[in-house]
Amino acid sequence: MTATSTMKTAILQVPGANLYYEVRGAGPVLLFMPGGPADATTFRQVEHDLASKYTVVTYDPRGLSHSNSTTRAWSRSSLTTCIACWPC
Prior knowledge:
Helices cover 19% and strands 32% of the residues. It is an alpha+beta fold and 88 residues long. Strand 3, helix 1 and strand 4 form a beta-alpha-beta unit.
């Protein structure tokens, strides 16, 4: 059975994008990073259970779902910048 957890949502402003993200739980932070054309919903099956012990953060990558992007370019540098800006 899946545990329920309260979800908080917010927008993280990073260079060239506004990223939608969701936070559940409390404890050490687990940042789930979807690959390909996936978004924050990719991890729904595990995030609620993990939120009983961890702060689970999921997000929509730039240009997908609730996130926007003023630049379509993706790079390791832009991803590193996004991670460094995270408020958790």
